[in-house]
Amino acid sequence: MKRHVDFLSWLHLAWGFIFLLVALAGGALAAGALAISTGTSPVAVRSPMAAQLTAVTLAVLSFIALAWAILHLWIGRALGAYRPWARTLALGLAVVNMVLLPFGTALGAYACWVLLKEEGRRVFEAPVH
Predict the structure, then answer these.
(1) What residues does each domain of the chain span?
(2) Contacts 24+ apart (CB under 8 A), 64-71
(3) Contact, 7 vs 123, CB < 8 A?
């Protein structure tokens, strides 16, 4: 079962890096929308307020994606180190990931399968001396 936990750790790291890319792309789009809203850009707009609203919305979504990425990267590293608290947090993330179709759903279902099985629980237990 350790190989499943290791694979789950890698999946969390991959999911975190994907969201990191989403955050960077969203930040770039927010910066572009902010540049359009100012009068110095070569693009003429009738309503700079719409461009500003777009910039703020993209910036907020980018911040959420960045937080989600950091959380997944942190949990992914902790799962790879078999930290007991990481199992609990990964199960919480699995529930939220279920909403993010289709890949988040697959990640959440796999995390539940790995972490809720008895063999999966034993991987995170401290060895008895």
Answers:
(1) 2-123
(2) 65/19, 65/20, 65/22, 65/23, 65/26, 66/19, 66/20, 66/23, 68/16, 68/19, 69/16, 69/17, 69/18, 69/19, 69/20, 69/22, 69/23, 70/16, 71/16
(3) no
pLDDT in tens, 43-72: 677 778 888 999 999 999 999 999 999 999
Task: At 24, list the tokens.
Answer: 């960077």
pTM, 2 dp = 0.87
Tokens of 86: 């990481």
Give the rounded distance of the alpha carbon of 47 from its chain centre: 34
Q: Quick one: how many helices (H) and strands (E) in the chain?
A: 5, 0
Q: Which of 77, 74, 67, 61 is nearest to 25 (CA)?
A: 61
